[in-house]
Design brief:
The chain is an alpha/beta fold. It has helices spanning 19-30, 57-64, 76-86, 103-116, 143-149, 162-174, 195-204, 221-230, 267-277, 288-296, and strands at 10-14, 34-39, 47-48, 51-54, 69-72, 93-96, 119-121, 127-130, 134-137, 152-159, 179-184, 210-216, 238-243, 280-281.
Length: 309
């Protein structure tokens, strides 16, 4: 299996008309995503990249449902409205690629999804990819990139950084290990799905043998994950790199969410609690290949076909 997306998962895109929607839809089609509908108000009755476009989510659901997942590409000021509309039907997963959402809107979106028991990725998530099974968002294509970066295998990838999601996946594959699912958590201050929640999904996945994670200063994501491990709710190997070592208190690093707000949110503190819980914490990103080989002893690949060309 993979997590959150499988072959045949029925996907809808809200906001497909336009350059960003076109690029993302083409990417998802190349990764074998099953896009069955798109929604763009005022643009119904046409086909975009051979995908039927509807005026509302309810109309798309009536014509193409049941639909499993949606990707929201609305502007930040309209994103909450789009999410509320998405929750009028029985979806399982919502990906919000939207960045710079008003904080109160993000809080409300997360609360609404939790109440509806719908999985929210983001806000500010570039998406996820499960090689040869499908994707939500912008990862996994074009083909020449996927051959290097997103090869099928048995390692889960989670990243706080959009760019480092691809870098991390590439280094996993370069070391001779493929990807089960790679996910960008999102760069906003409020997230619909946390690091520890994804670890629990990977724990249940029979085709994931371990997880590699890229973290940053700020937030309590890593502390929550450490507690999860100590409580026995995640038992597979976890290899971690935390960026931002040595930064003084009050410094913002990379994303709006990554700011040292106290001793407990420094890279050094996160490293300490994760090591104590049993995670393998890297001093340098370039140590990942050696760490994978030490932890798994080259036993993950079922065949040479999972190794980079």
């Amino acid at each position: 299996m993979s997590i959150l997306i499988q072959r045949g998962t029925k996907v809808m895109i809200q906001g497909i008309i336009g350059p960003s929607g076109e690029r993302m839809a083409k990417n998802m089609i190349e990764t074998k995503a099953n896009i069955v509908a798109a929604v763009t108000p005022g643009q119904p009755g046409q086909r975009f990249l051979d995908i039927p476009v509807y005026n509302t989510v309810a109309e798309a659901w009536r014509k193409q449902g049941p639909i499993d997942s949606t990707v929201i590409l609305a502007p930040a000021s309209e994103a909450k409205k789009a999410l509320i509309e998405a929750l009028t039907v029985d979806l399982k997963t919502i990906l919000m690629q939207v960045e710079k959402m008003p904080l109160h809107d993000a809080i409300e979106c997360v609360a609404r999804c939790k109440k509806a028991e719908v999985r929210l990725l983001g806000p500010g998530s570039a998406g996820l990819v499960s090689p040869q099974r499908g994707s939500l968002g912008t990862f996994g294509a074009p083909e020449e990139l996927s051959k290097l970066t997103f090869q099928p295998g048995r390692i889960g990838v989670i990243s706080r950084s959009r760019g480092q999601t691809t870098t991390l996946a590439y280094n996993v594959c370069k070391a001779g290990y493929g990807i089960s699912t790679a996910i960008h958590l999102g760069s906003e201050q409020i997230l619909g799905t946390t690091f520890s929640e994804l670890l629990q999904l990977f724990e249940k996945d029979d085709e994931t043998d371990g997880v590699v994670y890229y973290g940053e200063i700020g937030s309590i994501l890593e502390e929550e994950a450490a507690q999860l491990i100590e409580d026995g709710m995640y038992t597979k190997p976890l290899i971690v790199y935390i960026a931002g070592k040595g930064l003084p208190k009050g410094i913002r690093f990379s994303h709006a969410s990554a700011i040292v707000e106290g001793e407990n949110r420094t890279a050094e503190k996160k490293t300490k609690v994760l090591k104590k819980a049993g995670a393998h914490v890297l001093e340098r990103p370039e140590d990942l290949s050696l760490a994978l080989k030490c932890v798994f002893k080259n036993s993950l690949n079922d065949s040479l076909s999972n190794k980079p060309e």
